[in-house]
Amino acid sequence: MASSVNPTVRRRRLGQELRKLRELKGMTAEEVAERLLVSQSKISRLENGRRSISQRDVRDLCGVYGVEDHRIVDSLMQMAKESRQQGWWHAFGDIPYSVYIGLETDAASLRVYEVSLVPGLLQTQTYASAVTEGSWPEATAADVERRVQVRMRRQERITDPENPLRLWAVIDESALRRIVGSGRIMCEQMQHLVELSMQPHITVQVLPYAVGAHPGMYGKFSILEFQDPQDASTVYLEGITSDLYLEKPNDVQAYSVMYEHLRMQALNAEDSRRFILKVAEDWSRTDTAGVQP
User: Fold this and answer.
1) Are residues 140 and 39 in the same domain?
2) What is the pTM of this model?
């Protein structure tokens, strides 16, 4: 049964506390690993929240750091217990980007730059199905359905009436022009984009071909920010076999500056809506897969 506790966030916060304890002790990750007879990479993964942390791990680390206050140990042990609970996404089986889902579920705002596709949180169900089928040729029908269900569930973050995710999306024109599924699916997706962009917490900007060279030509990325100041802003870079999460302030700042340049070069929100509606009209005139307006 999925818990209301977000295990991904618990792991991140617990890892941050363990790193602070190590630094207060004046020890390196390598020294801690030697004391515990484990690899240095395990200590690093525990501290960056990318690995599940057991209560035994916490006990052993507190022993190495000389933590004598039982209240601190008990608090960390409780966080370790909560970090091993299951988020809602675990009910769908093995999802390769489950760490990202955990972060997205708890984020206060999300800035996305997308090159080839409409961002997942803004996709219609039929578009999401066509994307999954096309990008995962060996998938079974059940695999596709499961991935699409997860994507639709993720979208509850932007429809939450009390605490919606603040979403800012800059989308390259190529994502609007690339046919996914059929002209009808594309037309519906464009109309859906426009409807969502009317929401006060969602901003959609189009980066047209006419802009030419721009800072985002190296690929897509996302920047997640959180309500709790303890949670560091994170840059997410999606990969084929593994993903990259950047949390160092210099890295986040570099991508934030890049995003500001993209926002400035893209069409403003109103012009973007007009642009997308024009693309929707183009798609409405073609229902034959493979024909591009």
Assistant:
1) no
2) 0.79
